[in-house]
Amino acid sequence: MGRLDPVFARARAEGRAALVGYLPAGYPTVDGSAERLAAMIDSGCDVVEIGVPYSDPVIDGPTIQAAADVALKGGFRLRDLFRVVEHVASAGGHAVVMTYWNPVHRYGVDRFARDLAAAGGLGMITPDLIPDEAEDWLAASAAHDLDRIFLVAPSSSAERLTSTTAATSGFLYATAVMGVTGARERVGSAAAGLVARAREHTDLPIAVGLGVRSGDQAAEVAGFADGVVVGSAFVSKADEVAGVRELAEELADGVRRPVVPAAQT
Amino acid sequence: MTDKKDEHEPDRHDPDERGHFGPYGGRFLPEALIGAMDELATVYEKARLDPDFVDELNRLLRGYAGRPSLLTEAPRFAEHAGGARIFLKREDLNHTGSHKINNVLGQALLTKRMGKKRVIAETGAGQHGVATATACALMGLECVVYMGEVDTQRQALNVARMRLLGAEVIPVKTGSRTLKDAINEALRDWVTNVEDTHYLLGTAAGGHPFPMMVRNFHKVIGQEAREQVLEQAGRLPDAVTACVGGGSNAIGIFHGFIDDPSVRLVGLEPAGKGIESGEHGATLSEGSPGMLHGARSYLLQDEDGQTIEAYSISAGLDYPGVGPEHSWLKDTGRAEYRSVTDAEAMDAFQLLSRTEGIIPAIESSHALAGTLTLGRELGPDGLIVVCLSGRGDKDMDTAATYFGYTEG
What we know:
The complex is a heterodimer. By secondary structure, chain A is α/β, with parallel strands linked by helices.
């Protein structure tokens, strides 16, 4: 059983997709990020991904790179992350952490998992850790009852979809397009195909990320996925709490009116 | 060029099938790139056993790159090294002026085998960028080179060379604006364009199969050097020295001697303004294990796992990571790693120029400086082969400023 299963089950029962919103801890400040993440929960995010600012964010586009830079220049430390997680969890939010692997490796994988669980976090998304290299995380996530959310991409082979979904719990993160993070005009058509392929290998809920920025796009993705992940769009609205609130409301409306995809021709 | 020993054949120094050298190496990369890494590994594994591939590569190395490179004794330089005999492996004489061409020709051939039309690369000093632009011109491939903005300024001549060769050079303005950030930007390009693009990584680092593959393309340095030193000196050297940034020339020359236990393998890292200043790039000497750019290896990082920016007067050594096999060689004790300051390297740069009439790259000057020290330790009976990985033409601006040659 995944820690996030009830969240996705409830969304499914309501005939909608779950809304997953991302913001890096420490952006614009540590307290500011906690406040915004709580507002995102409050305004309709079913789950929040709390990002860990990292010096070498190779799969992030300019928006999240810049935010990580602000956080690190502002003195962000890993211990601040757990404080933010605790704030969100104690406000009743479902929080997972999204992080490049080196900060976790350096902190100590088991120690990180322990502190994340103690803060009330439910799992971790690991964009540059594949299950093949994740032995210690598989053990630590089991020991501390955390979801391990791995990613699949349009380029993932059937063999890799099998092994990756087998190692995943909570939900499967499908990257909609080949590319770095960042809001896009259109969510790639590859996304629906990837979700369909992944479903042949797993019953896990599947959330689609990379590129969603509007209610209409959320509605479109909700038509074929169990969850809609929104990252850069939240970051670019994070100057003001009202900005993330407004966006969360628009997206929460979007995931509640899924657009059933036209039949494939 | 010798056909007696095939440097491409699998041997006991290869990593495991997932690319691990002991606890180092592997693949710490986004899933989106794993398909391309698998494809590259498959195509490479097939090519390394294919006589047609090996012949074609050898033909290019001989007829285009100018191999075998010379092994030149440096007696006047050696007078400053306690009288030990010193031989220079002259990678500076290769076409494009450094060892980088060995790897680039191999990977460019693989790019064609994969049916890809576009090549991207990172570069620090510009040597790898120039070599890549050269191979792409030769083979009709589109070429984009990412280079930190700081490096485009200190290596302006190489930027012009790449552009002349038809490559697009993109200055990278993020982070420290040096080699590390150029690699980040190249990875971002690759994850977006992986379908038609090969990332022609320039050092023996990154995710599997890059560290093994790049090493194998550079093994020719060590194999030639071993044969040449036996012929010229009649015996194996006491030590082989090379500079280590990412570590590709070092791993190439080390492997010629790795099965000769009497030969010490000594890597020289940049100590920059001095280890105690904190401004250096001595990853193996001062770092700790972590992940950067796709592999587990030694890394300059803070206690939260954030990368610490490296510093060196030499753009090619200014990197906070290092190839994973060097980490393994350090831990097993087969190789030893020392560091050399900017000042020591620049002294050796000038000394080789004035004693032998050979202007070395500042990168290679780190190996030369380490060789002077090691020679004094070994005494007059010592014999050292040093990898002169590149020539110093590109460094004239830096040198002229450093030594004040342009003043009145």
